[in-house]
Amino acid sequence: MVHAVTQVGTGRGPILVTGGSGQLAAAIMALAGGRNLVRAGRPEFDFDRPDELPALLARLAPSLVVNAAAYTAVDRAEADAEAAARANTEGPATLARYCAQAGIPLIHVSTDYVFDGDKGAPYVEEDAPNPTGVYGATKLAGERAVLAACPRAIVLRTSWVYGATGRNFVLTMLNAARKTDRLRVVADQIGCPTATQDLAAAILAIADRLAAEGWKPEFAGVFHAAGSGWTSWHGLAEAVFQAAARHGGPQPVVEAIATADWPTPVRRPPDSRLDCGRLARVFGLRLPDWRHSVAVTVDAVFCDDPIPLHSALTV
Ligand SMILES: NC(=O)c1ccc[n+]([C@@H]2O[C@H](COP(=O)([O-])OP(=O)(O)OC[C@H]3O[C@@H](n4cnc5c(N)ncnc54)[C@H](OP(=O)(O)O)[C@@H]3O)[C@@H](O)[C@H]2O)c1
To answer: Rounded to whole angstroms, how far apart are CA atoms 141 and 136?
Structure first.
């Protein structure tokens, strides 16, 4: 699937957004405004068919690539390591080589799961990664491949991504509460929930900056880009139902449980909070407080507004 939104004929190539129907790619397209954006997804844009990518990229001739495509099924990746590596490592490397040859920037999205979560304080970009599973390991290898191949690469590590559409924790909670009045949610893992519309707004703000100022050496490298503040999965679930109450939504009992009571094939980082100071210093961007954005997202779900068309991103 390749389709364009609002071609404005700037004389420059479009911004190519990979990730097809994924929740982040959808939010970027929804916030496109008058920008020249093209979204590419499967089957036409498929990291499992790498031989076809160069011709597609040459035809689209983008001025910037935003890679929001990834193999994101954390547990399934353990038994599907080759597919995870194709999507999370080899595919991004191919994109990065194309961008380097074309002399254009690449914004590549990565994850807090490159860390083991044992630091006990918010992670900065210089902290040593130590992924606990195949997903995190393939994403870390993807970061490194992108940075090695493309001098104009910006790697945005984000976390706990949710939106009003797609597969995510917020919608899982709302759907589960329609079937049961008691939910058990892990309370001893903490992190920074990130709304798709906020990360999308940050990516577009970076794209605007690149278009206005051209490339600068300080733009290169890894940036943490997550919602402001932090909570546990249990705290996030409670905030979802507080917001849902304003719309007469379900009000289940949300029981706090320990990670040990909810075993998963892959160990999750117990504390993957991201320090986003570099994003603020270099790009002047601070994503909104997670509580505000959860409320905006839940409002969108209940108002049948598929994706919030605004973000309280601070620029
Ligand atoms: N979700 C989170 O909680 C989270 C947390 C931290 C970081 N991230 C990162 O944020 C980015 C965006 O994630 P998201 O939440 O938007 O994920 P998502 O909703 O699962 O979307 C991922 C997209 O990637 C596409 N994709 C998967 N394998 C592909 C392949 N082999 N070739 C081409 N496209 C492929 C999928 O296509 P189909 O629609 O065809 O399946 C899907 O559209 C990713 O880099 C992810 O690692 C996500």
So the answer is: 9
Taken in order of first residue, the domains within the chain and their CATH numbers are 2-302 (3.40.50.720)
Question: Which tokens go with 285?
Answer: 């961007």
Q: Judge residue 80's burial from the number of C-beta atoms within 10 Å of its C-beta, 0-12 exposed, 13-18 middle, 19 or more buried.
A: middle
237 near 298, Cβ under 8 Å? no
Assess contact for 186 and 90: CB atoms under 8 A. no
Question: Using an 8 Å Cβ cutoff, are 228 and 294 in contact?
Answer: no
* Residues 41, 24: Cα–Cα separation, whole Å: 12
| Tokens standing for residue 253 | 């009992």
Determine whether 135 is an active site residue.
Answer: yes
Ligand 1 pocket test, candidate residues 72, 75, 111, 156, most atoms within 8 A of CB:
72
Q: What angle do CA 8, 14, 19 make, to 5 degrees?
A: 125
Q: What are phi and psi of 3, to 5 degrees?
A: -145, 155
Residues of the chain with pLDDT under 70: 1-11, 305
Reported as a single tens digit per residue, the pLDDT across 139-149 is: 999 999 999 99
Task: Give the position of tokens 């390991």.
Answer: 137
pTM: 0.96
159 CB near ligand 1 (under 6 Å): yes
